[in-house]
Design goal:
By secondary structure, the protein is of the alpha/beta class. It is 40% helix and 15% strand.
Length: 237
């Protein structure tokens, strides 16, 4: 609770006056502390260097995803509107620059798209979860291609990130699943009461968006993440 209150105070009092670099440092530090309190350690797997200016796409497993990525490479996120209603963390995500989008709202999508292109033109890193919802670990749902157009219009690469959560044995951690009827509170307590979690993030090779079609970008990014995830865990033979 102390950590959450500190985050609220920082977001309300410091962020409005802070430079982008300071906001990123504070976001990284706060996210790392939150994960530590939840007994989630970070492991960055060997891969490509994280681009400082790119459209980042990742598979979506848990509410932890935003904080894992922000603990390593703070981004401006695009996330589903439901996240905004999460107790405290939803408000903090909004304060950190997350943009929320309602499913099926085409007018809002067009407005958001223009904003994404402007942010990318400004040299920032923007991230979203193209599955549109959380999925079971080891699965990657089809990627929605619409927002990939922002990379094409902004002239930046698409960089896939592969995310997974494992236990001490290196197998997918059972407590992290956030699908079906699981609520945020249920998920939070399951993680707090379960065994320690290791979050694994792997930055994959950037995909050149020059002259590409958004559906091709989505397909290549999905395949790259699926291939990477297959190597993240220990499997029985």
């Amino acid at each position: 609770m102390v950590h959450l209150v500190a985050g609220l105070a920082t977001s309300a009092l410091v962020f409005p006056l802070a430079s982008r670099a300071l906001r990123e440092r504070l976001t990284r530090r706060w996210s790392r502390r939150l994960l530590g309190l939840c007994r989630v350690s970070l492991a960055q797997l060997p891969g490509a260097p994280a681009a400082a200016h790119a459209l980042v796409v990742a598979n979506h497993v848990s509410w932890l995803d935003i904080f894992v990525i922000n603990a390593l490479y703070p981004c401006r996120f695009v996330a589903k509107a439901e996240i905004r209603s999460w107790p405290v963390l939803g408000w903090l995500a909004a304060s950190a620059g997350t943009v929320f989008i309602a499913r099926g709202n085409r007018r809002e999508l067009r407005h958001l798209f223009k904003g994404l292109v402007a942010v990318l033109h400004g040299g920032q890193r923007v991230a979203f979860f193209p599955e549109g919802t959380t999925s079971l670990q080891g699965e990657v749902l089809p990627f929605h291609a619409n927002l990939f157009e922002a990379a094409i219009d902004a002239g930046v690469a698409v960089q896939p990130y592969a995310l997974s959560y494992v236990d001490a044995a290196g197998s997918y951690h059972a407590s992290v699943a956030y699908v079906g009827e699981t609520t945020f509170v249920d998920s939070l307590f399951r993680i707090l009461e379960g065994e320690p979690v290791q979050a694994r993030l792997q930055c994959l090779a950037p995909i050149d968006a020059t002259g590409a079609h958004r559906r091709d970008l989505a397909r290549v990014a999905q395949a790259a993440i699926g291939t990477a995830l297959a190597a993240h865990v220990v499997t029985d033979t």
